[in-house]
Amino acid sequence: MAEVKSLIGTQNKKGQTFTDPWKMLHEAPRTPSFYTGSEVIKEAVRRSSCDVMIAYPITPQSEAAALIGELFAEGYIGDYFRGESEFAVMSQCAGAAFGGARVFTTTAGPGTMRAMENFPMWAGARLPIQMIVTCRGINSPLSIQPDTLEIAYLLNTGMLVWHAETAQDFFDWILKGFMVSEEPDVHLPLALCCDGFFVTHTKDVVNLTPTDMCLPPYDPYRSPVPCMDMECPPVRMMRDPFVMKSNYISYATHASWQQEIWAAIERSRKHSIHWLNGLIDTENTDADIVIVASGTAVSQGREAIRLLEDEGVRCGLVKIKTLRPWPEEEIREATKNAKHIFVPEFNVTGWLAKELRASIPNPQRVHAGPHVCGGMTMPPEIIVSEIKTALGMKSFSLAGRGS
Amino acid sequence: MSKERIQISEALYDIMPSDYQDLVKSATYGKEDRGWKDIGSSKELIEQHSLCAGCPESMAFRYILASLPNPEDTVMVGSTGCTSLVFPMVAVHNIHSLFGNQNAIASGLKRALSVRFPDRVKDVVVLAGDGATVDIGLDMTLQAWFRQEKFTTICFDNELYANTGGQESGLMQKGFVAKMAPVGKLFDKVRLPEIARESGCHYVVNCTVSKPSLVEKVIRNAVHIAREIGPTYLQLYTPCILEIGKNSMEGLQEMRDSEKPTERFAYKEYVSEPAKQLLAELAAKDKERKAAAKQLAGQA
């Protein structure tokens, strides 16, 4: 196996200095920049020492994928190409990760579903690929607007699943995501989700780390399974446990391996807490009413809380940052005082409310909603209305206000 | 990797598995002249296999492994099928991913290895059946060729989905009655060798595996051309004797019958102009090397 020395302090071919990630993200000066979410993805990848990026040209993630192509042309990425289908792109990502590369890709909506077979395979093969999911509608009739239904499907793939609220989250979490997913005791793929269009296509002020600093390169030999590069002696070995027909041992191997994947998600908890400063953020959780949300529903919840305060209703907030690992203990603690818990979501099924109900005592406290779906926006007023209605307070419809 | 890496600590020698001891003592790694005649002299080339008795695929598999010009730095990519049962016993890294995505996996793999080892040769060889190559995975097979990915694709053509019980495949002969072809297959065998040529492959061969020396030659050509120039494709007839109703001893004859000049596996070879030039250069170097070795032997 190749000897790997620390490269921190040395420079890459673009003149960027490989920097201690903690220092880069917490101590280095930040420059405010007015960027779209897609441009922020590009800037994070510029600093991530990415070996291979594979692109698929369907919106809304396509803008980010195209911008990363510019990075390749500038020499920041080892290789970049456009795959033929989402299934193929995710397979190409797998191949590159099997070969020991740090791999990044993007997807959205129906593409995520088309590629779905790959994700449990990624997790099972312990490939720490980072995939941005800019969520959009997946159902018929066609919608290209944001909808987080696809996250519900990702939750059980064995991947880490994080849900960013803002472009700033996005920038920081892309970089931090590599640090968590590449830990030897984790070594799992990461689906870093955001609500497409709301985050990717809007501009925001994002504080960026210096361009001349980048993450240290990925070391594939810290993987808990062999890298497929013939640099370690292969002796009648196979990387993946495999179904040998009618072989009880292979069934047992499969079963224990699946458990190991989920144990690895649990082991990511400590690293995620370290890098994300906790799996959840909370505000005023001593209030009787608490809003629990992830993604941009958090922002809408925050605005609803401000509106409620104007009417004398005090309300707390729980922002969930990681859906896998699921912050069960943290949420139980944060909601222990709540008499009413509201879960606004950008999807029709209410998967977050279901997760929440399964995690806390007295789940009847959970009001699943409001829901918007198919790309609808969620005005804070409908959250306010939902809460006031549940509390027996008089509420006016948005239509009645002429909104 | 180099053979020097495969060392056993003296203190642990007696408790190491015999396979490991064998690999260290008699691996064919690093030998330019290795070939199918080395089969039987090293466990590295599969002493045993878990396929059916008399399986032509097992023959093909051994010839291929013995013929790889650079096994110590070759990674193989497979798909679900009978070869998946053999790979755990093989001393090259093998990726088994999903059904039909082998050429996509190989595309990412080859590029990653090129980024990580820019100054070294790392060969990638895809080995999959006709279902994975021509039906379910056809899009990814073709697109890898369109992109001029530098790896070899080998299709074990047994003209049906053998591993899952003999369902109709695109490479099945027209009229063949099979599961899911209850009145006989309705369309002709897909002409993938021709498609491969038109899709940008620089070396295409269609043949059986009845002649080990021939298999050795085409494998070496295909890997060398893929390494230097672009994609290469081999379609090898490896009949599933079980599914076509043959006995263990009849596999070889089935191949011989199918490779007659009028039959569907008559030897066909396409070599692009750049590939011809490369093969000529390699042949000249080989001649030179053999002459030097002969001279050295004479001096001794």
Features of this protein?
heterodimer, A: 403 residues, alpha/beta, seven-stranded mixed β-sheet, 16 strands, 37% helix, B: 300 residues, 38% helix, 13% strand
What does this structure look like?
The complex is a heterodimer of chains A (403) and B (300). The radius of gyration of chain A is 22 Å and the shape is globular. In chain A, 37% of the residues lie in helices and 17% in strands. In chain A, β15 (340-342), α12 (351-357) and β16 (366-367) form a beta-alpha-beta unit. By secondary structure, chain A is of the alpha/beta class. Chain A has 14 helices and 16 strands. In chain A, the strands form four sheets. A seven-stranded mixed β-sheet of chain A has the order 4-3-5-6-8-7-14, sandwiched between helices. Chain A starts with 16 loop residues before the first strand and ends with a helix. With 300 residues, chain B is α/β, with parallel strands linked by helices. Chain B contains ten helices and seven strands. Chain B has a seven-stranded mixed β-sheet with strand order 2-1-3-4-6-5-7, with helices on both faces. In chain B, β5, α8 and β6 (232-237) form a beta-alpha-beta unit. Chain B is globular and about 65 Å long. Chains A and B meet through α4 of A and α1, β1, β2, α4 and α6 of B.
Question: How is this structure best summarized?
Answer:
The complex is a heterodimer of chains A (403) and B (300). By secondary structure, chain A is α/β, with parallel strands linked by helices.
Give the biggest beta sheet of chain B: 7 strands, mixed
Name the structural class of chain B: alpha/beta
SSE pattern of chain A: EHEHEHEHEHHEHEHEEEHEEHEEHEHEHH
Distance from N terminus to C terminus of chain B (CA atoms, Å) equals 32 Å
Greatest interface and its participating residue counts: A-B, 44 and 47 residues
Query: Could you tell me the radius of gyration of chain A in angstroms?
Result: 22 Å
Number of helices of chain A: 14
Beta-strand proportion of chain B: 5-15%
Unreliable stretches of chain A: none
Question: Per DSSP, what share of the residues of chain A sits in E-state strands of 2 or more residues?
Answer: 15-25%
Count helical runs of chain B.
10
Distance between the termini of chain A: 65 Å
Order of helices and strands of chain B: HHEHEHEHHEHEHEHEH
